[in-house]
Each structure stands twice: as C-alpha cells, then as structure tokens.
Design brief:
heterodimer; A: about 260 residues; mainly alpha; 13 helices; B: about 260 residues
C-alpha cells in the first residue's frame, strides 16, 4: 500500500509539474466557488446565501480530488498498459488502489483548506465564531468518506471501458444533490433520498454549523453518518474490486478503454 | 490552398469516432447541465426570461465543454495511438485536418445545448420564444465558428505539452466564469472584464441574448450587429494564432522528434 502511494506520487509529478498540478486543483475549486457566489449575488439572494454557497462549494471541491481523481486511476492504468502487470502481482488490487488513493486524501484536505481561505479572503466569509476543531473534523471525515466513494466507483473502471464518465457524473451532480448551493429540502422527495445517501450532504451541513460555532458534540451525529457511509463504501469497494477484477480477467477487458 | 476533401474526410472520421463511442459526450454535457439547473434553483422567481437566460448560458457552456475536451483530445489521441506522425507526413497541412474535426466537435456541442434546453423546458414548464429567430441562429452560427477556432488553437497547444489533460481541466471552469454565458460581464469584477472582452463567445452570447429578446444590459452597450462584427474579428485572430501554432508545432516536431512522446 505504501509503495503504491509512493508510485502514485512519483508518476503524478513525472508527467505534470507540481506547480501545474496545484494550479489545476485550485482553479477548479476557486472558479467553481466564484461562479456560484457571483451567481447568487446576481440573483439577488443576499449575503447569507453567499456564505451558504461559498462554504458548500469549498467543501465540495474535495470531490474533484477524492472522487474524480481516484475514479480515474483504473483508466490511467489501462492507458499506460500497466493494469495487467499490476493484476499479476501477489498484492490484491484493492490494496494497490487504496495506496494510490491515499495521496488524493492528502490533496483533498489541501484543496478544501485553500478553498476556505479563499472564501474568507475574497468573499468575506467569517470564521470569527468558527470552532476550528469541528471544521478540521468535518474536512477529515468528508475527505475520507468521499475517497471511499471514489474507490467504489473506480472499481467499475476495471471491467468497464471507463470509470471517468461515471466520475464526471458524480462530480457535477453533487452540486445539485448535496445541499452545496441550495438546501436539499428544495429538491423533489425522490431526489432527497439520493441526497441523504451521499456523505457530502452531511459534510456541507456540518461545515456550516461548525463555521457558525457548533462544537464536535453538536455535529457529531452528521459526522458519524458521513463516516459510516464512507466506511460502507470502502467495504463495498473491497468486494467490488474483487468482483470486477474477476470479471475483467474472465472477459479480458483489462486493456479495453 | 485549402484541401476541402481532406477537411471533410476529417469531419466524417471524427463523426464516426463519436458514434463508435458516444459516452464521451457525457462529461461535457453533465457540467453545463448541472450548472444550468443550479442557476435556475438560485433565482428567487423562475419565469420565462430567467429560464431562457439560463438555458442559453448552459447551451454555450455545453458547446465550450465539448470543444475543449473533444478538440483538445483530438490530436493528443492521435499521439497516444501512434497515428500522429502519419498524419504529419501527409501532403495536407495538419491544421486543415484538425479543422474538420473541430467543426464536428463544436457542432455536436449543439446536442449539449439542445439537451439543456429540453430538460429545462420539461423541468420548469415555460414556453420559450425567440424574438428574432433568424438573427439568433446567425449569432449561434458565428459563436459556433468562433468556438471551433478556439478548439483548433487548443489542439495545437495541447500537442506541444504532455500536460494536456490537466490544461483541459484548468481551462473549463474559467471560461464558464468569464464568457458572460451565465453571469453578465458587467457583473464580474472589473479586473476580469478585459479577459471577457477578448473572448469571441462573450460577444456571440451577447448577440444571441439580444436576438432572443432577453432584457438587460448588453456588453459595452453594443447592439447585435457590432457584436457579430467583433466575433468575426476575434475569430480571425484566433484562426491566425492557430495557423501559426500548427506551423510551429510541425517544425518543432520534425526538428526534435518529440511528436511520439506523451
């Protein structure tokens, strides 16, 4: 697992310089937040809505790194022609991919922290009353849970031609479903069921409360649900990796992309 | 001399590629679609002008997304498959081949725009009408052409770097932001507005909005005619840049043999 993480870091920065990678993750999160904050302003929703949207998008920015990037790992291995050799090693594919995903957890935390700083410095979102321990806990738990989600979706990429398409869907549908820009209660009831099955929904809610001053005990319930969903997704991804790996071996789809 | 046959062959080849594997339209469709839905949810009152405004903007973003990914990937895909060198040594300049692909990619972006339109109509139930349909479609065609030349420019740029995928992701959202497609240019921070004015789609979108009859401020207070002239002028500049970049790319590739490296 650790050597997979080292390989992931080395290959990440072999093709893309560190400065460009940083620009990439910052551009996506900062421009997305700016887009919706300015839209809220244009729509005349007021400063409360502005803070609501800024915080939601700051946390949602972790999805690009944890879900999209993790989900793209099998596709990248296929393009490079290394998936079959990796599958032939004694290590379980799940272990290898968890190692590769660990770097994305770290990147996800950096992304959210910088996004929150951006929200504070540029859009004036105040952290004066924030419980920073709660904020840190929200970031850690949500990043962990969303990485589990990314692993679960990424396992599909072993068998299917690509999991990147699925990752794109998840990346952007989260903007609609997870209470990032407007409350989940605004959605039709059937969609709310989907919303409440996603860890990000609990994460953004908990973050807003933490920024308003709520302590760990107050947001503990939401964090527990997000952590539980993330754990279930990681457990599911273990099983899915085994199943899709078996299918890919049987049907010879490891080089199909 | 333009080789129409080669350009149209590239157009058909890109079309066949698309129909062989249409799943790749999904990533460029999802972002503008969700952005449109979120924008509509953010407005306190969703009436016909708001829906038309959001749908137009979402459609343009869809066309941009498809141009960026499909055209940006076009030459990189050749490089990955080892066909780029073969393409380079044909008698037809590569830019003419890529132009055919760029036109298809931008056209198929219309499906994104149509999808956004249909879903918004179904979800929000308003009847959308265009004030001047002929002018609207002329502005749409001009915007499409400008996006195709942007795609051409990007294809050339992306061949020169190994970080093309990263650059595509970097470029997607800023254009949503500065193009004025969803957020009017005069509502953007002043420091960003010069970038908006330098983008041909900014003026194309403005012309389309005016032709559709959407009330509100226009970019620099200019009318549709002026907007279309500016689109034409900036598109010509983009085309000149694309031609230069392709010439440079070809010369460099022949000199240092870097074409196959990705």
């Amino acid at each position: 697992m650790i050597s997979s993480m080292k390989v992931a870091v080395r290959s990440q920065f072999a093709a893309v310089p560190l400065w460009l990678w940083l620009i990439q993750i910052l551009t996506v999160s900062v421009f997305q937040m700016s887009f919706f904050v300015l839209m809220v302003d244009y729509a005349g929703r007021g400063s409360v809505a502005l803070e609501y949207v800024a915080l939601g998008n700051a946390l949602q920015s972790v999805t690009f790194v944890t879900v999209y990037a993790v989900c793209s790992i099998p596709g990248t291995e296929k393009h490079a022609g290394t998936l079959s050799p990796v599958m032939s090693t004694p290590s379980r594919l799940f272990t290898v991919f968890v190692g590769k995903a660990m770097f994305q957890i770290f990147a996800g935390i950096i992304t959210v922290v910088i996004s929150l700083l951006f929200a504070n410095q540029v859009f004036g979102v105040s952290f004066g009353n924030a419980d920073l321990v709660s904020v840190a806990a929200v970031i850690l738990v949500t990043t962990f849970a969303m990485t589990g989600f990314g692993l679960m979706l990424g396992s599909i990429g072993l068998y299917a031609r690509s999991s990147s398409v699925l990752a794109s869907l998840v990346l952007y549908l989260g903007l609609v479903l997870c209470g990032v820009n407007f409350p989940v209660s605004s959605l039709p009831s059937p969609l709310q069921v989907v919303s409440y099955s996603l860890p990000m929904t609990y994460g953004v809610d908990a973050l807003r409360e933490a920024v308003a001053g709520a302590g760990l005990l107050s947001i503990g319930g939401e964090l527990a649900i997000a952590a539980f969903i993330g754990s279930v997704m990681i457990a599911l991804s273990y099983w899915m990796f085994r199943w899709f790996e078996k299918l890919a071996r049987e049907r010879g789809t490891t080089d199909m992309f | 001399m333009i080789n129409i046959r080669a350009t149209s062959a590239a157009f058909k080849q890109q079309a066949r590629h698309f129909f062989a594997d249409p799943q790749w339209v999904i990533p460029s469709l999802v972002a503008p679609f969700t952005f449109t839905i979120v924008v509509l949810m953010l407005f306190p009152a969703v009436d016909e002008p708001v829906v038309l405004y959001a749908v137009l903007g979402g459609g343009i973003l869809g066309m941009w997304g498809n141009t960026l990914y499909a055209s940006g990937w076009s030459v990189s895909f050749d490089r990955m498959n080892g066909t780029l060198e073969s393409l380079l040594i044909t008698p037809t300049p590569m830019v003419q081949v890529v132009a055919g692909r760029a036109v298809w990619n931008t056209l198929i972006g219309l499906t994104n725009a149509a999808a956004v339109f249909v879903v918004a109509e179904l979800a929000f139930g308003t009847e959308l009408r265009l004030e001047d349909p002929a002018l609207f479609f002329l502005a749409l065609a001009a915007t499409l052409l400008s996006l195709a030349t942007v795609g051409l420019m990007l294809s050339a740029m992306f061949v020169m770097t190994r970080s093309s995928t990263v650059l595509m992701q970097i470029l997607e959202l800023p254009i949503y932001f500065i193009s004025g497609a969803m957020i009017p240019v005069d509502h953007l921070p002043e420091a960003i507005r010069p970038f908006s004015y330098a983008l041909a789609p900014t003026w194309g979108v403005d012309a389309m909005r005016q032709a559709a009859g959407i009330q509100g401020t226009t970019v620099m207070g200019l009318g549709t005619g002026a907007d279309l002239l500016i689109v034409a002028a900036i598109t010509s500049v983009y085309l000149a840049i694309a031609l230069y970049l392709f010439r440079r790319m070809e010369a460099r590739a022949r000199a240092d043999g870097s074409l196959g490296r990705w």
